[in-house]
Amino acid sequence: GVNLGQAIAWARKLPVIGVSHLAAHVFAGLLEEPDLRPPVLGLVVSGGHSDLVRWQEDGSIAVIGRTIDDAAGEAFDKGARILGLPFPGGPAIDALAATGDPRAIRFPRPRAPGLDFSFSGVKTALLYEVRKRKSISDQARADLAASYQEAIVDALLQRVEGALFPSPARGGGPGWGPAPTIVLGGGVARNRRLREAARARLGKAAHLVIPAPELCTDNAAMIGVAALIEWDRRGPDPTPFDADPSLGFA
Predict the structure, then answer these.
(1) 135 within a domain of the structure (yes/no)
(2) Where residue 117 sits, what CATH number does that domain have?
(3) How many domains does the chain have?
(4) How far apart are CA 159 and CA 233, in angstroms?
(5) Which of 82, 100, 111, 204 would disulfide-bridge 143, Cβ 3.0–4.6 Å?
(6) CA separation for the pair 33, 211 (Å, rounded)
(7) What is the pLDDT of residues 58-105, one digit of tens each?
(8) Do the Cβ atoms of 56 and 42 come closer than 8 Å?
């Protein structure tokens, strides 16, 4: 894909700009609100990533928290497999949880140092809960899905709140200002409960931007926005260059 893009650009005498697709998930907020400006706190959650980042005034993105084991999307996939649900697990759990009680089982909230995430413990707790039951009715399965989803969503939002409001006396936290802005991105940001809970818990204290569901998964529109930002920040890249799977948010 990278080589094809460079070949097309060369043939048409167009500049080429390499971008991070992870950073593009944060910049996707501009597709909802074109006037969005940093500093912005971004929560990027997908099958391979759970990152808390700061989109800084110079256009760069700094990681301030990340998963130390499973990503949130990976936890959904593994949880779905434990519950006998199809892949991908996130949409399957989301759909089943709609008919369940999120308070039926109090799964442990993942704990990690600082603003990091950890989801391996809640997955193990679900596995033990399922194993100790001789049978699981349809309603019990829905309750398990809803309770498991609630634990993951709660853990994600706890870290967002921790970044913005480190203590009641410090308001929006250092460097965020009195009305902090938050952008949710990545495939897990399509999750119905995450979107609902984020609005309920963060909507009054911060300016919350959640792209439309189709703009949360990988898409060309967010890559285009990222290219515009990088064009303004550093201009086109010299060619040829290779794809960098470990690029991160750089």
Answers:
(1) yes
(2) 3.30.420.40
(3) 1
(4) 29
(5) 100
(6) 9
(7) 888 999 999 999 999 999 999 999 999 999 999 999 999 999 999 999
(8) no
